[in-house]
Amino acid sequence: MAERPYIVGNWKMNGTRAMLSEARAIDRAAQRYMKVEVALAPPYTLIHAVHREAEQIGIGAQDCHPGAEGAHTGDIAASMLADAGAKFVILGHSERRQDHGETNKLINAKIESALEAGLRVILCCGETLETRDAGDAEDFVLRQLKSALPAFGDPAERLTIAYEPIWAIGTGRTATAQDIEAMHRAIRALLDNTYGEDVSAQVRILYGGSVKPENAREILSTPEVGGALVGGASLSAESFLGIVVGASEAEEA
Ligand SMILES: O=C[C@H](O)COP(=O)(O)O
To answer: Which residues make up the binding site for substrate (predicted)?
Structure first.
């Protein structure tokens, strides 16, 4: 089974240089919880500055362009992220799919490009409430993954999946532990079939959607949950570290 629980903060479109003190506090405190792998994905504008501050935590980005370079105004290539100090990139987040019409095909191309640039990838998936209520959540998520997953057999440790039910993002609602476990088991079975069990075992499956200090321990104790992708609660060191503590306790239990 893959290593330590992975707790990743996604700052989304939040953060100016004034937030560097939060990143610094997270980094310093993370050194006390070595059983947990802690990472932050600030906006592009802060990647290099947070990277320079960080001694312990991993720094990543929230998106990249599928191309290597060229005339794409406003876009950022994976190699440029790596140059700025990023070690991973979040791809296929539901907010990118909704706000920018990202398709699984495009996300697949971005993944290939990110891996080529030496980055780790956190591939997001998740269903809407309508899809869940219609009983199609599992089929929908597995279809998303089948279309987006990279055809690699080699750097499995560089792939992480994040299951984020869209209706749980930023709403205060979380999926039940049973629903999370069932979906994570379905994703694990897909990874087993796609890459073989040895490779699949190296891929962590994170849960995302209103993870907070109060629910972190329960969620992170759920079978097949290898960590959390945290939005709102990652914006303050205090609440994010509360989740890190929950992960550490879940790991020790
Ligand atoms: O990337 C993070 C997720 O979208 C979860 O966001 P949230 O913790 O604010 O619900």
So the answer is: 10-12, 170, 210, 231-232
Q: Which residues contact 4 (CB under 8 A, 6 or more apart)?
A: 35, 36, 37, 251
Q: Among all residues, which ones are annotated catalytic?
A: 93, 164
Between the CA of 168 and the centroid of ligand 1 the distance, in Å, is 8
Nearest residue (CA) to ligand 1, atom 3 = 231
* Domain chopping of the chain, boundaries: 6-252
58 belongs to an annotated ligand binding site: no
Is 248 known to sit in a ligand binding site?
no
What is the CATH number assigned to the segment(s) 6-252?
3.20.20.70
Residue ranges around ligand 1 (CB below 6 Å): 10, 93, 164, 169-170, 208-211, 229-233
Going residue by residue through the chain (253 aa), what tens digit of pLDDT does each one get? 457 999 999 999 999 999 999 999 999 999 999 999 999 999 999 999 999 999 999 999 999 999 999 999 999 999 999 999 999 999 999 999 999 999 999 999 999 999 999 999 999 999 999 999 999 999 999 999 999 988 765 567 799 999 999 999 888 888 899 999 999 999 999 999 988 898 899 999 999 999 999 999 999 999 999 999 999 999 999 999 999 999 999 988 8
Residue 167 is assigned to a ligand binding site = no
